[in-house]
Amino acid sequence: MRPDGPPPGPARPEFWRSPLRGPWLTSVLGLVLLVGVTVLFVTGLFSYAAYNPGLGAPNDKTPDKGLLGFYLFPWPAGPPWLYRLNQGVHVTLGVVLVPVLLAKLWSVVPKLFAWPPLRSVGHALERLSLLLLVGGVFFEFATGLLNVQLDYVFPGSFYTLHFYGAWVFIGAFVVHVALRLPLMVRTLRSRGLRAELRTPARRTEPEPPDETGLVAPDPAPATMSRRGALGMVGAGSFALFAVTAGQSIGGPLRETALLAPRGRDPGTGPNGFQINKTAESRGIRAADIGDGWRLTVRFGEREEVLTRQRLLELPQHSAALPIACVEGWSTDDQEWSGLRLTTLAALVGIGRLDAVDGQEGRDGPDGPDGREAPEVRDVPDVFVESAQLAGSFRSAGLRANQVRDPRSLLALRVNGADLTPDHGYPARIIVPANPGVNNTKWVTRLTFGARP
């Protein structure tokens, strides 16, 4: 026999009895997510642009993105902390919003079990949008958090899945906001936040029934106020901030980054700072970086092959730059020293040698030791290749504006000491505001004016 109403369980309105549920609490949480998700999406777009996918493979992790890459622009080489700030905000905010997201889903969970599941074509479309919204947000947060924890288990590339997932989610999110924003504004105006935050549990009453269907028809007595519920969510977000943000902020707060596998102190000494991939994990053999190592610099038909000793004899410059990674962790500024990329370009006939050849100096925006930096206008893009045999990011492209920056180096030393193998010995790229994985380690070849 077919029942007249919904089946027993969560499909029945009386199953949900919390007196806190209602359009006002949902709207408060929704407003926080509206702001937070917007910032997440924008910083995510910037994060993808920082890889300069316009250079093609291997920088382009989503080669079939089509119109979804309409916004891409050449990523600037400064200020040097730009990518560190952007990715720190993106990852930390994503972690901090988890309690808000869970609370928001709790506040609307009765709607997910509404009966009948499909009442009309319009209702079916609304349910589909909710499926994309809820499924998309869970997918984005799950892939992002797993990537931060270096425990990525989804099949396929994180970059591709996260990129397309973001666009699916943001499409459903925009539709949802467009449909619900007027109701959210009216609801927030219906009762004052300050007054609600002063209301204890003993005086907490259910919201008046309305068309949203969120208010319990048979509410239980309140055991917590809305102030308590919001406070609990805020405390959870603050706790996550406290154990995450240190990986990006650095300094003494780095010790508090308990949820950041690469955020904590990795040791002492000149090379005592974070790494993402070790030489062993990437198949680097002793022979690859030993005395037989050579750097090949090429432009057109012209080619130079250099030993590490020859590189050390060329003009050396230094720059204080951090390393920042897509997982949100970053180092403090490290003092890198080596050759400007423009110096290497000049060896194969591009531009001219540094105006201060033969001098050693510390590079800043205005040049070494505060002197005006030599200007090289006609340097092209460069394709960087590594001795790395296994894993991703074995090579990367750098745009001309990155090559021209006087702080962009082929680093041979760091903090006064030779690089260790895990930090890229014999030579690695270091470019301001560049994602860490594109600062290629164990460099063996630089090809100017070439794209893969």
Automatic annotation (TrEMBL):
Taxonomic lineage from the root: Bacteria, Bacillati, Actinomycetota, Actinomycetes, Kitasatosporales
Annotated ranges, domain Oxidoreductase molybdopterin-binding: 291-450
Organism: Streptomyces nanshensis
Source domain of life: Bacteria
Entries under Gene3D superfamilies matching the protein: Oxidoreductase, molybdopterin-binding domain
Record field: transmembrane: 24-51, 89-109, 130-150, 162-183
Compositionally biased spans, kind Basic and acidic residues: 197-206, 359-375
Pfam families xref list: Oxidored_molyb
Annotated keywords: Membrane, Transmembrane, Transmembrane helix
Name recorded for this polypeptide: Oxidoreductase molybdopterin-binding domain-containing protein
Region (Disordered): 197-220, 356-375
